[in-house]
Amino acid sequence: MKTTMEIDKHKYKIYTWKNWTYLHYIINPGVAFGELILGQRIAKVGLVEKNTGKPFIERNFVPCPHCETLHDYKTWAGKRATKNWFGLYCPNCKQIIPCLMNITTFIILAITSPLWYPFKNQLKNSWLKMQENRFAAIQEEELPFEIQKKNNWIIGGLVYGLLMFLFSIFIIAPLTSEEIFSEKGLKTLILWIVGGLSFGTFMKWYLSSKKIN
Question: pLDDT per residue over 51-70, tens digit each?
Answer without folding.
Answer: 777 776 778 899 999 999 99
